[in-house]
UniProtKB/TrEMBL annotation:
Domain Histidine kinase/HSP90-like ATPase: 22-132
SUPFAM superfamilies assigned: ATPase domain of HSP90 chaperone/DNA topoisomerase II/histidine kinase (SSF55874)
Organism: Sinosporangium album
One Pfam family cited in the UniProt record for this chain: HATPase_c_2
Keyword list, A-Z: Kinase, Serine/threonine-protein kinase, Transferase
Source species taxonomy: Bacteria, Bacillati, Actinomycetota, Actinomycetes, Streptosporangiales
Name of this protein: Anti-sigma regulatory factor (Ser/Thr protein kinase)
GO molecular function, one term: protein serine/threonine kinase activity
Superkingdom, natural source: Bacteria
Record-linked CDD domains: HATPase_RsbW-like
């Protein structure tokens, strides 16, 4: 995955943290997104939710779990945010398969697929990297600036 187009984007800022692969660290991942975006940012809630899903997947479904670690990168740009979670690998690649109605899990990547404007995953030497982007709706940004509630346009 070539991240150079984002690192060079005007106004881009990267936040990177490597976290131990234990469930308690998912909260730290969410806090990094909050620190990078700010609570009032229109992409905050979706960014935190999807980060939580990907960080949880890294901890529960990869070698990044107990004794391992995962890396979170948040890149903020004037018109969007890109969030990347890299883990230490798994026997099988991540799947955006739709879970059954009674399944207890399996909703993380389908949720990313639904909410993100763009997303993808790659595997290198068994390690998984999942990324997503959320883009600002410029009409919504003007509404936030005017003090109104942010309402994204339908896709």
């Amino acid at each position: 995955m070539d991240m150079s187009e984002y690192g060079e984007a005007e106004g881009a800022q990267d936040w990177v943290i490597r976290l131990p692969g234990v469930p308690e660290q998912v909260q730290r991942a969410r806090r990094l997104v909050t620190a990078a975006l700010g609570r009032d940012h229109p992409l905050h809630d979706d960014g935190v939710l999807l980060t939580s899903e990907l960080a949880t997947n890294a901890v529960l479904h990869s070698q990044s779990g107990e004794g391992g670690a995962f890396t979170l990168t948040v890149t903020t740009m004037p018109d969007r945010v890109r969030i990347v979670v890299s883990d230490e690998g798994s026997a099988t690649p991540p799947c955006a398969c739709r879970p059954g109605l009674t399944d207890q899990g399996g909703r993380g990547l389908p949720l990313v697929d639904t909410l993100a404007d763009r997303w993808g995953l790659s595997r290198e030497d068994g390690a998984n990297t999942v990324w997503f982007e959320l883009a600002l709706n410029l009409v919504g940004v003007a509404a936030v600036d005017a003090g109104a509630r942010f309402t994204p346009l339908p896709r």
